[in-house]
């Protein structure tokens, strides 16, 4: 038996970008052929795409991890690496994507709707793309960026026009089975239905002259497990109340043949309306669906084929008229009143669609960055005394792209940070030479006197003479000097002992 899963947590990881290549063209009679290292390929994205043939999130329940393809590294002779393969994951229509904090990221409605769950990392530039007037033959290349990692929550909210609500064993699944071609599981015990059942209903014009227009087609779904306290987690209601959010019409199915003495149709409807009102705050962030309390309602008195149920319907119908909603008597067994009910539901759905037309696809909104807006921020480091932390998408990306075992690559990073204005901001905040500066996952000692731009002297490939020109004594030098002083002190102590023995 297939399982219905409507809420899952998935872990998506995009592909890493390929590293750039550091290469020099070598050919006979051309000893200085110039740099020819190609760029690395972009990492593959992970995309979620609505597929009309998918109706559950079951696949993600068993396989919650997904990863895009990695980009290939660049090669010599200006050959760029291949891009990583994108991974597309099919989701059912009506899937809502949320982040770990519960914020809605996307509302997936309509076949083909696509959402980039994780973006692939950029490929690193090869040394051919890094060549400039200051660096005519760079001896380094940029590393590829790691792919984006995200943890997402997928919630399925059924795309149904009519939602049937009612107490367990009210006959909701039976109505779906006789109004449509759906074949849900039906039994005579509560909580038989453990998942919403969807069916397609066609209200065709008949000989009685109900309507003269074309056939009305709408979808209908029963929502299981609604009992008092469902909005607080009792029963199954908390798991399936979300399936009512997209419904154009809500139909209260009342069991007129119930044997429970403490229940009556009026109290049943009032109890379910209280649960729907309690669930209302969860709908505030939804996308243009309107208030659930404003959806059209209809009351269905079910099981009137039983004599006692028909008598109860005659008694309670005057009391139910105070709600102001249309009332229909039906029987899923004898099919009494089903035709009138189908046309009434079709009319309400049609009116709702006309009053709430579907929104057209919106164009992406591009908000350019202000001219005076900084690309980074510099703040005092709360964990290191006298240190600073630089935050910003560009500096952090440059850190990830740098080969720190290559002095020339480190010098290129210093040039980029200086042109961005990081050094000027550090000076303004009172940073001193040797102050620890953290960018991303890397902490280094700041050297404010490093020249930039065209002042860079030409040295060997992979080296940068600026990194050796510093008056500040490093940790290795201090350790060597301390060792030398200790040895010199021990030597003088030995001479003092020898002079005392001579006396």
From TrEMBL:
Domain (OCT): residue spans on this chain: 368-448
Compartment list: Cytoplasm
Q: Where is this region: Disordered?
A: 62-85
Q: Which EC number(s) does UniProt give?
A: 3.6.5.-
Keywords on this record?
A: Cytoplasm, GTP-binding, Hydrolase, Magnesium, Metal-binding, Nucleotide-binding
**Enzyme class at the top of the EC tree:** hydrolase
- The yes or no answer to whether the keyword GTP-binding is present is yes
Q: Which InterPro entries match?
A: G_OBG, GTP-bd, GTP-bd_Obg/CgtA, GTP-bd_prot_GTP1/OBG_C_sf, GTP1-OBG_CS, GTP1_OBG_dom, GTP1_OBG_dom_sf, OBG_GTPase
Biological process terms in GO annotation: ribosome biogenesis
GO cellular component, as recorded: cytoplasm
**What PANTHER family does UniProt report for this protein, alphabetically?**
DEVELOPMENTALLY REGULATED GTP-BINDING PROTEIN-RELATED, MITOCHONDRIAL RIBOSOME-ASSOCIATED GTPASE 2
Family, according to the entry, reads as follows:
Belongs to the TRAFAC class OBG-HflX-like GTPase superfamily. OBG GTPase family.
Q: How does it assemble?
A: Monomer.
Q: Specify the protein name.
A: GTPase Obg
The gene for this chain is obg
């Amino acid at each position: 038996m297939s399982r219905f899963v409507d809420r899952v947590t998935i872990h998506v990881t995009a592909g890493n970008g390929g590293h750039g290549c550091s290469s020099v063209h070598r050919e006979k009679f051309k000893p200085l052929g110039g740099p020819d290292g190609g760029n690395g390929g972009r990492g593959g994205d992970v995309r979620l795409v609505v597929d009309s043939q998918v109706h559950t999130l079951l696949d993600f329940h068993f396989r919650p991890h997904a990863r895009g393809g990695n980009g290939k590294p660049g090669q010599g002779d200006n050959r760029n690496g291949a891009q990583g393969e994108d991974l597309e994951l099919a989701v059912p229509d009506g899937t809502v994507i949320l982040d770990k904090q519960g914020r809605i990221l996307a509302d997936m409605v309509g076949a083909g709707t696509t959402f980039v769950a994780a973006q692939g990392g950029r490929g690193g530039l090869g040394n051919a793309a890094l060549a400039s007037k200051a660096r005519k033959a760079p001896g380094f290349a940029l590393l590829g960026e790691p792919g984006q990692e995200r943890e997402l929550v997928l919630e399925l909210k059924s795309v149904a026009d009519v939602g049937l609500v009612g107490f367990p064993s009210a006959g909701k699944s039976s109505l779906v089975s006789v109004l449509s071609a759906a074949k849900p599981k039906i039994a005579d015990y509560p909580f038989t239905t453990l998942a919403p059942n969807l069916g397609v209903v066609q209200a065709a014009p008949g000989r009685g002259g109900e309507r003269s227009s074309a056939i009305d087609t709408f979808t209908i779904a029963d929502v299981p497990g609604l009992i008092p306290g469902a909005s607080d987690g009792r029963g199954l209601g908390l798991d399936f109340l979300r399936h009512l959010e997209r419904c154009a019409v809500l139909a209260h199915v009342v069991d007129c043949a119930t044997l429970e003495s403490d229940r009556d149709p009026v109290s049943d409807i009032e109890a379910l309306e209280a649960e729907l009102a309690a669930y209302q705050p969860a709908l505030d962030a939804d996308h243009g669906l309107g208030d659930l309390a404003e959806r059209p309602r209809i009351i269905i008195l079910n099981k009137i084929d039983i004599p006692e149920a028909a008598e109860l319907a005659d008694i309670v119908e005057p009391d139910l008229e105070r709600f102001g909603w249309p009332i229909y008597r039906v029987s899923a067994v004898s099919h009494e009143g089903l035709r009138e009910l189908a046309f009434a539901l079709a009319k309400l759905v049609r009116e709702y669609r006309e009053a709430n037309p579907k929104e057209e696809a919106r164009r992406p909104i591009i908000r350019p960055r202000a001219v005076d807006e900084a690309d980074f921020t510099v703040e005092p480091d709360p964990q290191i005394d006298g240190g600073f932390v630089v935050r910003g998408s560009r500096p952090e990306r440059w850190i990830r792209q740098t080969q720190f075992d290559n002095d020339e690559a480190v010098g290129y990073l210093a040039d980029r940070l200086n042109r961005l204005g990081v050094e000027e901001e550090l000076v303004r905040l009172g940073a001193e030479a040797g102050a620890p500066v953290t960018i991303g996952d890397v902490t280094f000692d700041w050297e404010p006197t490093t020249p930039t731009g065209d002042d860079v002297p030409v040295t060997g490939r992979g080296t940068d003479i600026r990194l050796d020109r510093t008056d500040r004594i490093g940790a290795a030098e201090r350790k060597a000097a301390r060792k030398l002083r200790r040895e010199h002190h021990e030597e003088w102590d030995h001479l003092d002992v020898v002079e005392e023995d001579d006396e």
